[in-house]
Specification:
- The chain has two domains: 207 residues, 3-Layer(aba) Sandwich (Rossmann fold), CATH 3.40.50; 223 residues, 3-Layer(aba) Sandwich (Rossmann fold), CATH 3.40.50.
- It has 15 helices and 13 strands.
- Strands 9-8-10-7-11-12-13 form a seven-stranded mixed sheet, sandwiched between helices.
- Helix 10 links the parallel strand 8 and strand 9.
- Helix 2 crosses helix 3 and helix 13 packs across helix 14.
- The relative contact order is 0.11.
- It binds adenosine-5'-triphosphate.
- InterPro entries: 6Pfruct_kin, 6Phosfructo_kin, His_Pase_superF_clade-1, His_PPase_superfam, P-loop_NTPase, PG/BPGM_mutase_AS.
C-alpha cells in the first residue's frame, strides 16, 4: 500500500516546466528538486529533453539550434514530444507526483503546447524560469559543466565554449521570458540571478509552495559540509541503543582530536557547528573553536519502549517487532518512538537550512547521519537505514553541479562498531550485509 505523506495526500500531479536559456542551471535545479522530493518520499522524476535530442543528434554544433534550421527543428520537436509522452506515461503507469520537464521551453508557443497537454491530463503545470544576465557566471557555468558534456566529447574546451556561446545566441533570437502581464494566469516562479529576486505568480497548492520555498533557498557558492557521529559513548560500549550517556574515554579522545582533523580539512574557514541536544554530541563538540548551535531535530531516532536496551534484549522482549524492523527498516516505527521516515520529516528544516548555509559541521547520531547523507548522496530509502557510518570518522561533503563528492577522514582512534546487519542481533562491521551496500562508508578513503 502506498504511504502518503502530508504533501501528496491530495492526489495532486504537478509538472514543473523549466524555462531558461542554456547554462542557466535548469538541469541543476531540476535534479535538486527531484532529490529533495524523493528524499521526502514524493515520487518525482526529471525528463531531460537534451538526452532525448542526443538520440537524434549526438553532437550538434551551434547552427543546429538556429530556429530557422528546419531539419534540426524536426529533431528537436521529436525529442520534446518523446519526453512529454514518456512523462505522461510515467504519471499514468507509475503514479508519479512531480515531473520536471527539463528543457529551454523558450517560446510562449512551446509553453502553451505543454500547458494544454497538462490541462488535458489533469496535471498542474508550474513554470519555473531561471533567468540570468551575469556573463561571468554564465561563462563559469559553461566551463563547469558544458565543455565536458557529451555534446562536446573530444572537443577543445575553448572551441566548445565559443560554440556554446553561439548556441545561446541562437536561443536568444526567439527567447520569450515569463512575463507578469502576459503570463498572469499561469502558475510560475522566476528566479533572477540565482535568487537575488524571485517573482512568484499564482502558486496555490501546498506542494507547489514547498518546491518554491526549496528553490528560493538554493545557492551555488562553493562550500563543504562536515558530518561526524559523536565519539564512542558509554552506551555504545554496553551495546545499548538510545539514552543520553556520556562519552567513553576513547570517545573523549576523539573529541580532543576533532579540532585538529577539522582544521586539516577546513583550513581557516569559519565554520558553524550543529549538535543535537544530547550529551554525547555536545561532549564531542566541546573543544571545537567555532560557534555552536543545538538542534532538537538532530537528536537520535527515538527507540520508544526499546530505548536503553541492547538488540539482543529487543529480540528477546519484542521478537515480532525485531523481525518487522529488519523487514522494512525505513517504515518500521518503534513502539512509542520513531521510524526513519519520521526522522526524515523532522530533518526537513535542517536540510533547508543546510542549503542556505555555507560551511557547517554537524555532530549527530547514526540514524540522523544516515538520513542527511542519503539526501546529499541520493541513496534510496531501502538502502539508507543499512548504511555503515563508522564512529571516529569525519566525513566531508562537497556539493558540486550535478553530484556531491565525499571524503572520509579517519581519526585513528579505535571504537566499537555499532553496526547491526539484517537478521542478527549482533553488532559488528564484519557483517556481510553492510559490505554489500553500494553506499557503505567503511572501506574507501574517499568516494565520488
Ligand atoms: N539559478 C541559477 N542561475 C544560474 N546558474 C545556475 C543556477 N543554478 C545553478 N547554476 C549553475 O549552472 C550550472 C549547471 O548548468 P545546467 O546544466 O543546469 O544548465 P541548463 O540551464 O540546464 O543548460 P542547458 O539548457 O544547456 O541544458 C552549474 O555550474 C550551476 O552552478
Amino acid at each position: 500500500m502506498p504511504v502518503y505523506t502530508v504533501s501528496n495526500v491530495q492526489n495532486l500531479r504537478i509538472c514543473v516546466v523549466m524555462v531558461g536559456l542554456p547554462a542557466r542551471g535548469k538541469s541543476f535545479i531540476s535534479q535538486k528538486i527531484v532529490r529533495y522530493l524523493s528524499w521526502l518520499s514524493i515520487k518525482s522524476k526529471c525528463f531531460n529533453v537534451g538526452n532525448y535530442r542526443r538520440q537524434g543528434a549526438p553532437r550538434p554544433s551551434a547552427e543546429f539550434f538556429d530556429a530557422s534550421n528546419e531539419e534540426a527543428y524536426k529533431i528537436r520537436e521529436h525529442a520534446v514530444t518523446q519526453a512529454v509522452i514518456d512523462m505522461m506515461n510515467w504519471f499514468a503507469d507509475e503514479q508519479g507526483v512531480v515531473a520536471i520537464l527539463d528543457a529551454t521551453n523558450s517560446t510562449r508557443q512551446r509553453r502553451n503546447w505543454v500547458l494544454k497537454l497538462c490541462r488535458e491530463n489533469s496535471i498542474e503545470p508550474m513554470f519555473l524560469e531561471s533567468w540570468c544576465d551575469d556573463n561571468d557566471l554564465i561563462l563559469r557555468n559553461i566551463a563547469d559543466v558544458k565543455t565536458s558534456s557529451p555534446d562536446y566529447k573530444g572537443v577543445d574546451p575553448d572551441v566548445a565554449t565559443a560554440d556554446f556561446l553561439e548556441r545561446i545566441a541562437n536561443y536568444e533570437q526567439v527567447y520569450q521570458a515569463l512575463d507578469e502581464a502576459q503570463d498572469r494566469d499561469l502558475t510560475f516562479v522566476r528566479l533572477i540571478n540565482i535568487a537575488q529576486q524571485v517573482i512568484i505568480n499564482k502558486v496555490e497548492t501546498y506542494l507547489e509552495s514547498r518546491i518554491v520555498f526549496y528553490v528560493m533557498n538554493l545557492h551555488i557558492k562553493p562550500r563543504y559540509i562536515w558530518l561526524s557521529r559523536h565519539g564512542e559513548s558509554i552506551y555504545n560500549l554496553e551495546k545499548k541503543i538510545g539514552g543520553d550517556s556520556s562519552l567513553s574515554p576513547r570517545g573523549l579522545q576523539y573529541a580532543k582530536k576533532l579540532p585538529e582533523l577539522v582544521r586539516e580539512s577546513a583550513g581557516n574557514r569559519d565554520l558553524t557547528v550543529w549538535t543535537s541536544t544530547l550529551i554525547r554530541t555536545q561532549e564531542t563538540a566541546q573543544d571545537l573553536p567555532y560557534k555552536q548551535l543545538q538542534w532538537k531535530a538532530l537528536d537520535e531516532l527515538d527507540a520508544g519502549v526499546c530505548d536503553g536496551m541492547t538488540y539482543e534484549e529487543i529480540e528477546e522482549t519484542f521478537p515480532e517487532d525485531f523481525k518487522a524492523r529488519d523487514e522494512d527498516k525505513y517504515e518500521y516505527r518503534y513502539r512509542g518512538g520513531e521510524s526513519y521516515r519520521d526522522v526524515v520529516i523532522r530533518l526537513e528544516p535542517i536540510i533547508m537550512e543546510l542549503e542556505r548555509q555555507e560551511n557547517i559541521l554537524i555532530i549527530t547520531h547514526q540514524a540522523v547521519l544516515r538520513c542527511i547523507y542519503a539526501y546529499f548522496m541520493n541513496v534510496p530509502q531501502e538502502e539508507s537505514p543499512w548504511m555503515s557510518i563508522p564512529l571516529h570518522t569525519l566525513i566531508r561533503l562537497e556539493p558540486r553541479a550535478y553530484a556531491t563528492h565525499v571524503t572520509k577522514i579517519k581519526a585513528d582512534i579505535p571504537a566499537v562498531s555499532t553496526y547491526k546487519g539484517k537478521g542478527t542481533s549482533q553488532v559488528g562491521e564484519s557483517d556481510s550485509n553492510q559490505r554489500k551496500s553500494a553506499h557503505a562508508l567503511i572501506d574507501s578513503d574517499s568516494k565520488k
